[in-house]
Every structure is written in C-alpha cells, then in structure tokens.
Amino acid sequence: xxxxxxxxxxxxxxxxxxxxxxxxxxxxxxxxxxxxxxxxxxxxxxxxxxxxxxxxxxxxxxxxxxxxxxxxxxxxxxxxxxxxxxxxxxxxxxxxxxxxxxxxxxxxxxxxxxxxxxxxxxxxxxxxxxxxxxxxxxxxxxxxxxxxxxxxxxxxxxxxxxxxxxxxxxxxxxxxxxxxxxxxxxxxxxxxxxxxxxxxxxxxxxxxxxxxxxxxxxxxxxxxxxxxxxxxxxxxxxxxxxxxxxxxxxxxxxxxxxxxxxxxxxxxxxxxxxxxxxxxxxxxxxxxxxxxxxxxxxxxxxxxxxxxxxxxxxxxxxxxxxxxxxxxxxxxxxxxxxxxxxxxxxxxxxxxxxxxxxxx
Length: 360
Hints:
By secondary structure, this protein is an alpha+beta fold.
C-alpha cells in the first residue's frame, strides 16, 4: 500500500534499503541545514524544491483528510513520527467509518545516505548522478518525500481508490540539489463498473496531463495498466488511471514537473468525492457484498504478491508493519473456483480487467 508512513517511504523509494547515518557537511547534515532554513526563513517559492514539496504534500494531506471526513462524518486518527536520521511523517487513518471501511493518507519525509552500490544501481536511469570525471561517489546524501492514499468504501457500488505522488533528490556537498525526479499517479478499482465513473476519473486525469504535455496521458495510462496487473490471475487490479516514475530533466524542467504534480494531486478530491457521493448510498444485495469481498481478495493478492513497495517494506529490518499493511481492507474473501455468471455485471467487470479499455 501506499498509504502510510513507512509504507509510503518503502514503496516509493526502494533505495531506502541503503539508508545509513547521514553525512556531515560543514558539521551540518542536509536534514539539519533544512531544519535551520525552515526556522530562519520559512518555506517560500525560492526555497529548495525538497522543502517546497514537503510543504505542499502536508498541505494536501490536510485538505484530503478534511474532505474525506466531510463525506464520512468520522474523524481520522493522526499519528506523527520522526526519524533519527532526519525527517519523519504523518499517518492519518480512518477505520470502520460510516462510508469508508478503511482510509489512509500518509506523508513521509526521509533523509539518509546512499552508499556506492545504491548509487551505481540508480545510475542506470539517472546518468548525471555520476560525477563529471566519470567517478561514482562513495556516498551521497538524499531526500525523499511522498504522499500516499488508499480508500476502501463500505458500499460495493463505490470504488476503491489509490494515489501516490513523490519526489527524490540527492544533495551535493554544499547542500544544493543533485540528481532529482518526481513520480506518482492515481488509479481506480471498482467492484461494479459504472462507465460514468470510469470516464470521469480518466477524463479528469487526462485534462491535467494535457495541460502540461499531450504525451503524458497515453503514456502514463499504459504504464498504469501494465504495473497494476495481477499476472497470476491474468487481469488488472482495477480499471487504471495514470502511473509514472523518474520524471526528471530529460522530460522537462523541475518547475514544470512540480506544477504538473501539484495540479494532479489537487484534482483528486473533486473527482473522487463526486464519484463516491454518487455511489455511497446505493442499495446493494448480500450477493453484491460477497462479490466486493472477492474483489478485495484480488486487491490484496496484488499488494502482497506483485507490489514492489510492499515486498521491500516487509523485508526491511525494523519496518513498521502496521503502516506497510495499511493498504489492506478490513475484510476480504477467497472462494474456491469462483466464477461470475456469464452476462452478469460481475462478468463485465472481469472482461474489462482482462482487456483494459481506453475510457477517454
């Protein structure tokens, strides 16, 4: 899951397995420099991108939590945590509410040090992490920040949704930015397919993408369909959305990509709340609730079998398991040799999951 503290960091930034004590630069680590800058100057448009991204995702976390609380009528539990190496996070969780069975919104801010093996691995996708003379540094300080969200509604007519937006950068010895990139996306997982919802979800994402680059949506939609795929079932986890990673200077400049990240994240609440408000009070049968449980089981299968972040998190010594498994619904089921009735709404969903559609 991508919803909360340790899970946010582990899923979005697999290089975190390399974390060590932070380097000292002129007696201050990058984390200490940033804390000093925030105390003395605050965070402005001229601040380093890492501080601007941290400020932005914390603001959006508050807005998202407020909006979901308004839909549900239940307050989130809020847990704050700190890392001794620098950074920390805020985990917000709503469980067994009136509308949402489980909802998690997590922010993670991580400072650490990459050793040479991790730098070598990263250089495959980011050539400029290598020094101008072609030498690979022995170590590099880094910063990583992300916001992750998962929502599992109670009503089987209302879709599950997942979202994650993140930023990563390494630091030069003077504390300025080195290699950097953004990643993220959002995807929808219905139990019952309403074309109106699927079209709206993809249309709103496409509008944001097109505002910044007409090539984004078709590329990121395909990437989403390919990543969130249950290979052992031969079907997608959901009906897609967008997914992307490694957006750096080879794609656009930092300010333009940050503007895209901001617009994408801000578009979530208007889109999802309108969908869930249409579906949350719809009538449903016990059989339809049972189908939701079967589909929840498939969601769990993807997260535990195929999702790289979950796998890494659970195999990391000292990992916060409760946060890693925040993505899991409260209830799910597995029925032996279960097949939907031909021609049923359930069968239509499976057909779309096996053959992803272009909704817009």
